[in-house]
Task: structure prediction
Amino acid sequence: MKPIAFGRARTAASAVQTIAVRPNAMFVAGGTSLVDLMKEGVELPEALIDVNGLPLSAIEARADGLHLGALATNADVARHPAVVARFPVLAEALLSGASAQLRNMATVGGNLLQRTRCPYFRDVGFERCNKRAPGSGCGAIEGHHRNHAILGASDRCIATHPSDMAVALVALDAVVHVLGPHGERQIPLTAFHLAPGDRPDREHVLGHGELITAVTVPAAPWAARSHYLKVRDRASYEFALASAAVALEVEAGVIRQARIALGGVGTVPWRAYAAEAALVGQPPTEATFDEAARMELAQARPLAQNAFKVTLAARALVKALEAVAAKGVSA
Ligand code: SF4
Result:
């Protein structure tokens, strides 16, 4: 039995100050990820500050975009009329993740911070995991890595980022709003998560004591024509083997704007810049989509057991692009 101090935050500022002076303290909101990791012995906080009482659960559709409070639940975001109508890729990504029960508890902020499902990371019985125990090695590289990353990996870690929501938000140019001991700051989501490099234990740019307060998504009328396609081993309650979040603006038979991100294949929610560049200025045809997928997956560095993901991700991307193109021409 390990004692854990517990407190409830009255204000965001007091929550930040409380955590900032306690190196082994953590925020807790929905707890759907953190409590599992505590039970598994992966996370061992000495204190938890419950932030559920803070007024950070608003979901607001504004002229300049979408404002998602960090405590908005995944379920509430997924069924919000403005999300469904203006950013269907986000609603679809959320509904493809976890289970209904988990989506009722899981929050926007927590979803961004969820940790990998790599079994070597989550089972402390495995000694080799650079993410959990820096310098110990990587059990997956020479072990079981069928579900691991083909994009953004290093020789220290090949774990995938597990979030579906983050993949859609990365494609939509979302911005993370943070309150920390030194004030507020905003971080583009594309710069929020860190590829493993030689520090797999560092997964994001937040400093200790920084609290996610909101995520905003800029207005983009053509994002109404967007789609999230997820391929997995079973139809529900399963993480992606490969997924694609796609939004296209097509005008006069030419792709004017493209936003693409891939999930299940990257060490971070993977913004597919090469595919986007290959699409813009081209007609929305099968040949264009094939070339975009080929350009993006040319960067893949698969291992023996996950080489199938190269083809799987390419096909998922092409299928998602075809689905969006079939929705019609953007206004
Ligand atoms: Fe640990 Fe990353 Fe290797 Fe998994 S892939 S065992 S998380 S270092």
